[in-house]
Amino acid sequence: MSLANGRTHLAIPGPSIMPDAVLQAMHRAAPNIYEGDIVTLVEGLIPDLRKVARTEHAATIYIGNGHAVWEASLVNVINPGDKVLVAATGRFGHGWAGQAAGVGADVQVLDFGLKAPLDAQKIEDALRADTNHEIKAVLVNHVDTATSILNDVPSVRAAIDAAGHPALLMADCIASMACDRFEMDAWGVDIAITGSQKGLMVPPGLGFVFFGPKAKEAREKVERVSLYWDWKPRSEPAYVAEYFGGTSPTHHLFGLRAALDIMHGEGMENVWARHDSLARALWAACDAWGQGGPLTMNVADPAHRSRAVTALSLGGDKGERLRKWCAEEAGLTLGIGLGMAPRGSAEAAGFFRIGHMGHLNAHVMLGTLGTIEAGLTALDIPHGAGALSAAAKVIAAG
Description:
This protein has 13 helices and 14 strands. 40% of the residues lie in helices and 16% in strands. By secondary structure, the protein is an alpha/beta fold. It is globular, with a radius of gyration of 21 Å. A seven-stranded mixed sheet has the order 2-10-9-8-5-3-4, with helices on both faces. Strands 1-13-14-12-11 form a five-stranded mixed sheet, covered by helices on one side. The chain folds into two domains: 9-16 and 268-397, Aspartate Aminotransferase, domain 1, CATH 3.90.1150; 31-265, Aspartate Aminotransferase, domain 2.
């Protein structure tokens, strides 16, 4: 007998759980895409997206996923042959580096491994060595979704300024936005990107690029940008279709409107605080389990852990076995380990991730943790006692 029947829960690091209000907003007839309500809808979305990113500057919407806005962000400020510096703390740092190489950039990667955050001093050193200022941008993942490392973006801004270097600061916030605190303007970020399917609680399909004055100026020095990727008409549209390079992604926009209403109704400070409390509850449980078994969190220092996703290891094939049991016997889907070992290798089966982003609360977190403990017990995977009690104490403290 399986206990998986009933409403399932998706605890992967995106797509995240969609609120009923988002699903209901999308369940409607197609609108006129040329005039009327769709124009008012889109014009209202832009300022509310800026509030999420904490910027007063441009917010643009692309029909695509995170990889799409990796490319969109690059082609608007980088000419083929331009140098970029990438601080990689996991698979997705290397992914953005690969995307940069694919559009013709000369890519220099500072690889900080899979367990440690970036070292801003090494970035400063690399920029100081670039005496001709050939590096046009520094690319940083605020959170690497594979390793769950949270990077200190303001320290990178400080490193660029200390080196007296004109490079743009570009931040990938695909996993982190609306989960981990991010303040684009206050932190001196020139370009920030994110997607719809994680903290924004909307199905995959929308990507967002936010850019400030320095990035806008850099765009004028780029020799060629294809019309679809060009952010100029999207940020200063003459008519509604220019926001999207064509037909509006209508039903995603309805869902996005509902999601933004939920977030701003709660308040961004409260959204960040909720994610912080629930993440600390998860970590308390993991600490307890790890006292009597092989479970370890990938990031040792809580200050460097994302509030959106936690990467873990059980070793052997235990991670994959736990994932399978939780899905088949209890209706809980955990995330696969990604980028921690070669895909398909025996070692890869020991890793997994827990997504805790977007539309979740205390009882969802406690239910997730209770199910994981049931799986550890059912599979005879050694683990320490008191995990649920530890998590409950964190939640009780607020």
